[in-house]
Amino acid sequence: MIDLELAVILPPGSPRAVLKKNVPVENACDDRQCHLNVGTYWAAAFPGDLDIVTGWALGRDGTWRAHSWLSSYGDWFDIQRPYTAHYGVILTPAEAEDFLTNWAAFRQRLGMGTARSWGGD
Fold this sequence. Notes:
alpha+beta, 5-stranded antiparallel β-sheet, 4 helices
């Protein structure tokens, strides 16, 4: 079952929403802090080399979870663990700054709610 937040922020056919399967995992972090970790990688990268992607990842158990990962020149990669699929939006640099500054407020402005912690999944 798809998280209700997913339907609100990324309705089917949304021009910014992208679904990808088999997103590779690189430099795996195992601390369940996906949003914080991608923000850290993005902030440390050369401007334009990385983009933050945020949305949901489909776990092996069939549950969509709030999640964030990275994109480099259009190629997505996760730094947490393998998921069945990823569905999200690539943030603009201004949105990424906002994401880093106040993640909970950022999610609320996008209509994603604030029920989930920084840890995502």
